[in-house]
TrEMBL record:
Organism: Sporosarcina jeotgali
Protein name according to UniProt: Endolytic murein transglycosylase
One Pfam family of this chain: YceG
Main location: membrane
Keyword Endoplasmic reticulum: no
Length: 374
């Protein structure tokens, strides 16, 4: 073969190789483009899926779902429980979302969670033991109110008439149902025939959020009793150890709530009542007379003190048959941790300040100074 022909063959091969390289480059280029498109499209749909999985299940829902988080539950268990309850769309995504945000230290307990809650709201609730949602409205029950006064507050904030509220809380069926739900809080002591309202003192005073425009009477009542449960539960062991009941605690605390104006007074008045009870003396506290009369008066008369009623602690020794109002946390704590004094008497001057005495003679002198001399 001639040299010229060999060169031509080599040239043709080189040309063919160049064409093959171009083809390969084109193929690689288009494969790369395809891969980029696949990744981009996949990323877009993955982003949308994850974003959708982190949105509330039902943004407009007003219903709540009871969720039990056992002690020692990890993120895997919690995520699975939330998915099973229909509160999140994907347990794995929720779990990774929590990990990315370094969320941990979740609180065990029973929660009333809503399908309208976002993952952040759910995580915040599970970390603090509280439910974070924007309430439709709030209702404040001040300390020291009676059932009748609470019923008026409820009527003013909801569409529940006062009469309907009182009828509901006084019914035997309601008490039986509540005892089944709160056996450690509501005992048969509330069924004492001398008690005016079984749940007097059991509707805890606080500001409560409500997430429905028209909550039922059952919802309102159970919400307030949950407040009592939360504030009384820490003392259950101490009460049992001392042979006392929740009913005794709330009854005692209700007297302090109506008598005292300051925390120190509550503890000191508790000591006065304890001293009187130990000596078998009647408590002789005016608020029980007013409760016996069923009316408010600025001043209790001598005739009022003679009213024949189980609640009147001038006529009956010991505590009244039940609470006379809704005691707050300070009064409950004062019963559990009273002062230790030798006082047996006290009176309030016109400014509301209480003055204490160890003997009846001292008490009479204080009365002459702060009451009779005014």
């Amino acid at each position: 073969m001639a040299k010229g022909s060999k060169k031509e063959v080599m040239f043709e091969r080189m040309q063919e190789q160049k064409k093959e390289v171009k083809v390969v480059r084109k193929i690689v280029f288009w494969i790369a483009i395809a891969l980029i498109l696949i990744v981009a499209i996949g990323g877009f749909f993955t982003y949308r899926y994850i974003k959708g999985a982190l949105e509330p299940m039902e943004a407009d829902s007003e219903k709540t779902v009871a969720v039990e988080i056992p002690i020692g539950s990890g993120l895997d268990t919690i995520s699975q429980v939330l998915e099973e309850k229909g509160l999140i769309k994907n347990a794995k995504i929720f779990k990774y979302y929590a990990k990315v945000n370094n969320e941990a230290d979740f609180q065990a307990g029973t929660y009333e969670l809503s399908k309208a809650m976002t993952p952040n709201e759910l995580l915040k609730s599970l970390k603090t033991g509280k439910v974070y949602r924007t309430p439709v409205f709030t209702m404040t029950i001040p300390e020291g109110l009676t059932v009748d006064q609470i019923a008026e507050r409820v009527e003013a904030k909801t569409k529940i008439p006062k009469e309907e509220f009182i009828t509901y809380i006084d019914s035997d069926e309601t008490i039986a149902n509540l005892q089944a739900v709160y056996p450690e809080i509501i005992s048969d002591e509330v069924k004492n025939e001398n008690i005016r309202h079984p749940l007097e003192g059991y509707l805890f005073p606080a500001t409560y959020p409500f997430y429905e425009e028209e909550p039922t009477v059952q919802t309102v009542v159970e919400t307030l009793i949950e407040g009592t449960k939360a504030n009384v539960t820490p003392y259950l062991a101490a009460l049992e150890e001392n042979g006392k009941s929740v009913h005794w605690l709330l009854t005692f605390a209700s007297l302090l709530e109506r008598e005292a104006t300051a925390q120190a007074d509550r503890q000191t008045i508790a000591s006065v009542f304890n001293n009187r009870l130990e000596e078998g003396m009647p408590l002789q506290t005016d608020p029980t007379v007013l409760y016996s009369l069923g009316e408010h008066k600025d001043k209790v008369s001598l005739k009022d003190l003679e009213v024949k009623n189980a609640y009147n602690t001038y006529q009956n020794k010991g505590l009244p048959p039940g609470p006379i109002a809704a005691p707050g946390a300070a009064s409950i704590e004062a019963v559990i941790d009273p002062s230790h004094t030798k006082y047996f008497y006290f009176l309030a001057d016109e400014t509301g300040k209480n003055h204490f005495a160890k003997t009846y003679d001292e008490h009479l002198k204080l009365k002459a100074q702060y009451i009779d001399g005014k």
